[in-house]
Amino acid sequence: MSLWFRIGQRQFYQDAGAVPFMNPKLAAHLLLTDAGQLKATTGNENASMTLTLKNANGECRDLFAAPPLGQLVPVFDNATQIFEGRLTQIDLSTDCKVQVQA
Amino acid sequence: MTLLTDPLPLRQNLAWGTYANSDSAVYLPHRYGICGGTCVQYDRQGTQFVFADHPVESIDTVLVNGTAAQGWTWANVTDITLHPVAMITLQQPVDATATVVARGKGKLHPRTGARMTDPAAVLWDVMNIAGRNVAESELQNFSGSCHARGLEVSGSIESADAVLTICNAICSSVGAIFSAGAPGLAVVWPGADTGPSLFTIGTQPDLTVTVGAKLDDIYNDLTVRYSFEAGNPRESLQLEAARSVAEFGRRTKVLDATWCANARTAYDVGSRLLKHYARAQWNVHADGLKRAVKIGQRVTLVSPVAPLGGDHVILGTEYTFSTARTAVDFSAPAGSAPSVAILKQSEAFDSQAVTISGVQTVGSDRVFIITEKDQVTPIPGAAVTLDGTLTRYTDVNGRVTFPVSAMPAGSHALHVVTPDGRTFDIAAQIP
Predict the structure, then answer these.
(1) Measured between CB atoms, does B218 come within 8 Å of chain A?
(2) ipTM rounded to 2 decimals
(3) Phi, psi (5° rounding) for residue B277?
(4) Residue B338 half-sphere exposure, CB side, CA atoms within 13 Å?
(5) Which chain A residue's Cα is nearest to B308?
(6) Rounded mean pLDDT of A40-58?
(7) In this model, does residue B348 exceed pLDDT 60?
(8) Fewer Cβ atoms within 10 Å of its own Cβ: the N or the C terminal residue of chain B?
(9) DSSP readout, B146-211?
(10) Chain B contacts of A92, Cβ < 8 Å?
């Protein structure tokens, strides 16, 4: 299982296993450290997930200087798209948490 | 001294004892700028009513049960307790169930004698009513910022809301923030220069900086509702940031600026808010500062983990005694400010609009009547401008006349200014 996701012209991945499935023409960043639960219910709660990126050395600082809020974010496991949503929140500290909602 | 979270200690009609009609407790209002509201019956006969619990500049209109009263007078007098009030005397007594509404120009500054529409002056007055002993000079910077931008307030305090609630309503109506912890109590924000940066955040050891941006914080279509009377807005202004709409989709918000006095203030507030909130913004929390800071002060942020720079106004502080550290919060928009344009300006809401009725052609004249929204109560003395060119005034029955030559069959625009200062644009269709 190799998770990766795309925001605009940038791709973020967790390990080299994802590389063959990514678009070679787009920038790729080996920064993904964790993907939270993908939770979906039949109630009012919207399906969402949180993706965590490295930022201990400010890796995401310049990438998200203009926070890409509202952009479509597809999330993949190898070649399979497992989720797609809008980027609704970014939190930056020593890591970077990206929240995506369906 | 009243706590900011306590009700503002307004006087009640019970202060008049058995002299007056004080069977039930009613707060005596304070009024500022051009405003109106329900008056409080003073005498048992039903001829005297208090407009405000202080002297006012003028009382311009009196309505009894929605109908313009005739032959009334007003004066700044002292009541039975020797407290100065603005008193209306009706020609005929009204029964206890009657509602007397008046409009006028409110409180005068005790030192300058000017009408109190400066938000800083009104805040200072509210603080004095609360017994908080604030010197007017403490609000000098806020007053200067408001004056420079032409920000004015109007409104009435008719119920004993918490002091903090009233102050926040005044400040949010002019695009400002209020805090007892802010130097000068209030600061125009966003979009105003609050002075030089005091220090730089980000280089201190043991400092934790977290920043976050949320899609939900963005709005790019803002309707400012203002000129409130009896809880209802009489005017509105809709603004948009087109670039942001294209980027994020239309995200709407309504601001009830209950103390906003005029279109100029509404536009200033709306455009500043949109320039800030129509773009993504970083909400910053920096914890571990070894110095005291206050809300409204300006600091510079440099962070290795956050894409931020520049100066920002502190919006929240938290000091921890056990560690002697301060945490601060502020909001930093990303990218350049968008341009803002007016989408729509409504000078009256349907619920408050005047109407025209009984359009007739009499000889070579068109004759019709301008009434209140009830379509019954005539508005005498209103200035009615036909198609932006010809102005005539309504007579005592609300009747106005224009020559047929100026008002031929077809659609015409009428701009109505009532004697109490309300303005309306209505369309007239002549068959």
Answers:
(1) yes
(2) 0.80
(3) -90, -5
(4) 29
(5) A65
(6) 84
(7) no
(8) C
(9) HHHHT--B-EEE-S--BHHHHHHHHHHHTTEEE-TTSTTSEEE-SSS---S---EES-STT-EEEE
(10) 210-212, 282, 305-307
